[in-house]
Design brief:
The chain is of the alpha/beta class. The protein has 2 domains: 93 residues, no CATH class; 341 residues, Alkaline Phosphatase, subunit A, CATH 3.40.720.10. It is 30% helix and 15% strand. It contains 12 helices and 18 strands. The strands form 6 sheets. Strands 6-5-7-1-8-13-4-14 form an 8-stranded mixed sheet, with helices on both faces. A two-stranded antiparallel ribbon has the order 2-3. A hairpin with a 6-residue loop joins strand 15 and strand 16. 48% of the residues are buried. The N terminus and C terminus are likely disordered.
Length: 477
């Protein structure tokens, strides 16, 4: 497990600061990062006050057990679960998602997104970058993840928080675990990661505190900066020192801001609301995501991977992530534990965004890297030693939930054939989804950024916003 720094909530002090992305007071400091970002941001226009919450379900959730059920398909396709009606006529979801059914008018299901990369690594890279990866395996990006692109394009935006934040399990915080890497944009554009279980009483945000020694060093640096102000202005005719003062001051303001500490402080939420999300890592990550976008963060990624934590005992027939091969888990036994936790967290997040009037400012996207094979297979489980059902990787069809962003909701976009194998109506790709996201964030996805060799690389090589999602007043904006 990664070490966690002492938490520090309460009155504003230089002893409490947010050390963004692990940069410290020596080496490549935050002021250096700010300078690099400011240089790159020259000429950019102001960004709208919009944000994205991206819920990542690594391993690939089964579309035919969640949002695209086929009750009339043959038995070895349709599985054990049955669909239930929602509060929108004509939209059904799995019987294990009853809370989803109550808020279906506030989300849209996209059932026709597909791609061609069946390996987890290739699937992650394909989905998260909006590009065809150079290799079909491995998790190291050769193109920046969309979150990194957003951080780059909105770097002039200042809200007292990093513009790109992620939440993961403690041992899975590396950017290459899920293909969150920034590739040629550089490490300054990877997410500030918040590892751990926010439902724990002693949960602490890594780097949200200082030891006494480091606090004294920061105090010394502040005093030195003020002490040399007059000298710098006297000897420097070029303005370089004055500019450095500006960046150092901005860094100190960010690092000592109470705004960051307050945004991460879940104790400010009522017990009732925290309970509504579920006192589980997934639920509290979802709540934390809402707090961070409400505080102004542009792009928040929260990973919902392992349900067997936060007091939920391990299941012999279960699996760590959503990778429901028969050798890994009993698909239906695992779902009976996993789905109710997921149901509570996602439905509460949707309701909370709308109830707090964030449904235009914030866009929510919930997805994994691909779907699962429409036909069920049975194999001997590695943990159980008995035959059990499962589904394998299937990029040919998947379901994505979206909400907020002033979008049209209470609808289904696209469809798959009668066995859930391939898109039948309105075939789409991950790029169409990302084009919709970029539009919401006010980013021109036809622009290009230079790669390592200086070649201009378009933010998206193809894809267009999904017309059915755009509200009437934004369709032709």
């Amino acid at each position: 497990m990664l070490p966690q720094s002492p938490s520090c909530f309460g009155s504003t002090s230089r002893r409490c600061f947010l050390q963004v992305g692990g940069v410290g007071l020596t080496g490549l400091g935050l002021s250096d990062v700010l300078r690099r970002r400011a240089i790159a941001a020259e000429g950019q226009t102001a960004s709208p006050d919009t944000s994205l919450i991206f819920i990542w379900l690594p391993g690939g959730p089964p579309h035919m057990e969640t949002y695209d059920m086929k009750p009339d398909a043959p038995e070895d396709y349709r599985g054990e679960f049955r669909p239930i009606r929602t509060n929108v006529p004509g939209i059904d979801v799995c019987e294990l998602l009853p809370l989803h059914a109550k808020v279906a008018d506030r989300f849209t299901l996209i059932r026709s997104i597909a791609h061609e990369f069946a390996d987890h690594g290739g699937g992650h890279k394909r989905f998260l970058t909006g590009r065809l990866p150079a290799t079909p395996t491995g998790f190291v990006n050769d193109a920046p993840a969309v979150g990194s692109v957003v951080a780059k394009m909105r770097e002039a935006r200042s809200c007292g928080l990093p513009n790109y934040i992620s939440g993961t399990e403690p041992g899975r915080a590396g950017v290459d675990v899920y293909s969150f890497g920034a590739a040629y944009l550089g490490p300054a554009y990877t997410p500030f990661n918040v590892p751990g279980d926010p439902s724990e009483v002693n949960f602490k945000v890594q780097n949200l505190g200082l030891t006494s020694e480091m606090a004294d060093r920061l105090d010394d640096r502040v005093r030195m900066l003020h002490g040399f102000d007059q000298l710098r202005r006297t000897i420097d005719q070029s303005g370089a020192m004055q500019a450095m003062d500006q960046y150092n001051q901005k860094a100190i303001e960010l690092l000592t801001s109470s705004h960051a500490r307050e945004a991460f402080d879940l104790s400010r939420e009522s017990d009732a609301l925290r309970g509504k999300y579920g006192r589980h890592a997934w639920g509290q990550r979802a709540l934390l995501a809402r707090r961070l976008v409400e505080a102004g963060c542009s792009f928040v990624t929260m990973v919902m991977e392992n349900p067997f934590q936060s007091g939920v005992p391990s299941l012999k027939e279960g699996v760590y992530n959503w990778d429901s091969h028969a050798v890994n888990c009993h698909l239906f036994h695992d779902a009976r534990v996993r789905f109710p936790i997921y149901d509570r967290a996602i439905s509460a997040l949707i309701e909370d965004l709308y109830d707090r009037g964030l449904d235009k400012k914030v866009m929510l996207v919930v997805t994994g890297e691909f779907g699962r094979t429409p036909r069920i297979t049975s194999q001997i489980g590695t943990q159980t030693g008995v035959m059990q059902p499962g589904r394998d990787h299937w990029p040919g069809a998947m379901s994505v939930l979206v909400a907020g962003a002033g979008m049209r909701t209470g609808q289904v976009v696209g469809s798959t054939n009668s066995k859930g194998e391939y898109p039948q109506e309105r075939p789409l790709t991950p790029n169409d989804l990302w084009a919709t996201v970029y539009r919401h964030l006010g980013i021109d996805y036809t622009l290009a950024l230079p790669d390592h060799s200086g070649r201009p690389m378009p933010l998206l090589p193809f894809g267009t916003p999904i017309e059915e999602l755009l509200s009437g007043d934004r369709k032709h904006a």
